[in-house]
Design a protein that fits this description.
With about 100 residues, the protein is of the alpha+beta class. It has helices spanning about 5-10, 20-45; strands at about 50, 60-65, 70-75, 80, 95. The termini are far apart.
Length: about 100
């Protein structure tokens, strides 16, 4: 004897919710959680650079494989979107460690 999924859910005490309602309810909270995760990651990265996550508030970064002495190194390319305070963009074209 086969029972439908809705019958089994009713027997288990579950309430059926229309799909459109379920999607509407989960949409904002799901995107809100994703936005919170992105915001949390951004606070751990220097906002002046894009393409790689450089730690904010460290003494110095240099391009990996270059002549710099660190203590932190980054592989490029890294886009400069603010102040290039680590002086990674030697030729000033807006892309560092290329």
């Amino acid at each position: 004897m086969r029972r439908s999924v809705l019958t089994l859910l009713a027997l288990a005490g579950a309430t059926a919710v229309p799909v459109s309602s379920a999607v509407a309810q989960s949409g904002p909270s799901a995107s809100g959680a994703a936005k919170a995760a992105i915001a949390k990651k951004r606070t751990k990265c220097d906002r002046n650079y894009s393409g790689r996550c450089l730690k904010p508030n460290v003494s110095d970064y240099d391009c990996a494989g270059g002549s710099g002495n660190g203590p932190y190194y980054v592989k490029g390319p890294v886009r400069i979107v603010g102040n290039d305070h680590y002086r990674l963009d030697a030729d000033g074209d807006g892309v560092a460690c290329e």
